[in-house]
Amino acid sequence: MYRNQNIRLNLLDVLFWGGLIFWSIYVRVRLPLNASMSQLFLFVLALIVLTPPWVAPLFAFFPRWSKKIWYKELFNRSQDGLSTAVAALVWTFFQKNPLYLGPWILSAGVGITLAALAFFLVNTSLVTLVIHLSSGTPWKEIWRKNFKWLSISYFLLSPMALLLARAYETPLIGNWGGWTVLLFLVPLYYSRYYWDEKVRLEQAFDTTLEVLMNALEAKEKQTRMHSERVADIARDLAKAFYNDEAKAQEIYRAARLHDIGKIAIPEAVLLKPGKLTEAEFDLIKSHTKLGAELLSPARKVAFDQLVYNVILYHHERWDGRGYPEGLAGQDIPEEARIVGLADAYEAMTAGRPYREAKSPEEALKEVQDFSGVQFDPKLVRLFTVLWNQNPIWRDREAYLAAKGGSVSPSTLPQPSSESSLPSSSEPGSRTSES
Ligand SMILES: [Fe+2]
Predict the structure, then answer these.
(1) Keyword Aminoacyl-tRNA synthetase on this protein (predicted)?
(2) Cα of 145 to ligand 1 centre, how many Å?
(3) Two domains, one topology: 2-197 and 220-402
(4) Cα(115) to centroid(ligand 1), Å
(5) In 1-124, where do the E strands start and end?
(6) What's the CA-to-centroid distance between 405 and ligand 1, angstroms?
(7) What is the mean pLDDT of the chain?
């Protein structure tokens, strides 16, 4: 084809590559974090190698006119076409201006990598622009959420595009390169199943988590809103602490389950409106160990060590006066320190029947006062920075409104499970009580 200056595209070429591109658009590969990518990229990049620069953009522009809103579809098609066109120009440039490193010609390797980069940059910039214009979300946020790690997939796939193109030029079976391409596609298609399974597993994990939370909620109504807000705070804190989206997501999931052990606490104690006896309070405190025991059959299958650490140690204190083991400082697993701080802030702003809810400002001040006492000072500093950025979780009322107000706000009486705890204004007392 093009490489051999034989520009004629026969009907079989058009049907084969048109078919592959059409197929790739419908078979989207789901990726973790709710992302997905079509393999359109792979096939148009292969076409860029095989054909003159004007062919691949046309292939990318034409297919998939679905019943969606026409101008959205026009945008999608145009941006795929435009990205392909820029990538084609980059590839062509390197073929016309060959690069050498000693005896090696680098034009193909460098050309395909930079063409992939061009495709990716044009494509994601246009999508980012549209999301930014329509939702006002900051650029960086959109890119980080949607594309940051997708770029890795693009770079891993770009040599594959070159391979497919070369395969098409190298008939192994029946004197037609299409068979070779199809053979190459088998492992690629298999990888799609691998991703699908991975995403399905994560969904199964989330469903299990929901089932467990429903079970606890059946017993203690306030628990869902509490655990959702704790988890949102913990996720933001973890993101700032680790600068790692995937880790933050793991901590979010663990935080959703942090009080799961309360399932095993008798309702008479868990929902007791009056003062708790010491024995009853000890029973409440056992929810940390009970939670870890409850989930132990799922250890290493559905839940990893991080989840256990959060469940078991979220009531430990920096000064070693927490429970269940009285760990102090760095001995407390980081994830448990993060969730412990989030838990305390949520509990303070939620209030209890025996104690008024604190305003966000009062609660922040208390978190700061207990820095180095109950909380890791480094986390308190990060928490303060986040709090000043006014996240949705800062104000409980705003959070409730944003979540659809499905849970009764803090002004309504809440069943207390730990009413015998000292008020947090007392020196050295716990600020986190749930
Ligand atoms: Fe707890």
Answers:
(1) no
(2) 30
(3) no
(4) 52
(5) 28-30, 36-38, 100-101, 104-105
(6) 23
(7) 80
CA of 270 to the centre of ligand 1 (A): 12
Residue 40: name the closest of 72, 81, 91 by CA. 81
How far is ligand 1, taken at its centre, from the CA of residue 259, in Å?
Answer: 5
Check residue 399 and give its pLDDT.
84
The CATH number given to 2-197 is: 1.10.1760
Reported as a single tens digit per residue, the pLDDT across 88-100 is 999 999 888 887 7
Q: How far is the CA of 222 from the centre of ligand 1 (A)?
A: 13
245-256 and 177-219 are packed helices; what angle lies between their axes, rounded to 10 degrees?
30
How far does the centroid of ligand 1 lie from the alpha carbon of residue 433, in Å?
7
Q: How many whole angstroms from 427 Cα to the centroid of ligand 1?
A: 21
**pLDDT confidence band for 29 (50 / 70 / 90):** low
Confidence of residue 321 (pLDDT cuts 50, 70, 90): very high
Q: Decide if domain 220-402 falls under CATH 1.10.3210.10.
A: yes
Least confident of 8-17, 19-28, 249-258: 19-28
Compute the distance from residue 287 Cα to the ligand 1 centre, in Å: 7
Residue type, 190: Y
Q: Domain segments of the chain: what residues? A: 2-197, 220-402
Q: What is the pLDDT of residues 164-193, one digit of tens each?
A: 888 888 888 888 888 888 888 887 777 767
Which residue type is seen at 73? E
In the chain, the largest separation of any two C-alpha atoms, in whole Å, equals 89
Ligand 1 centre to CA of 242 (Å) is 23
Q: Which pLDDT score is estimated for 160? A: 84
Instruction: Specify whether the backbone of 364 is left (phi greater than 0), alpha (psi in -120 to 50) or beta.
Output: alpha
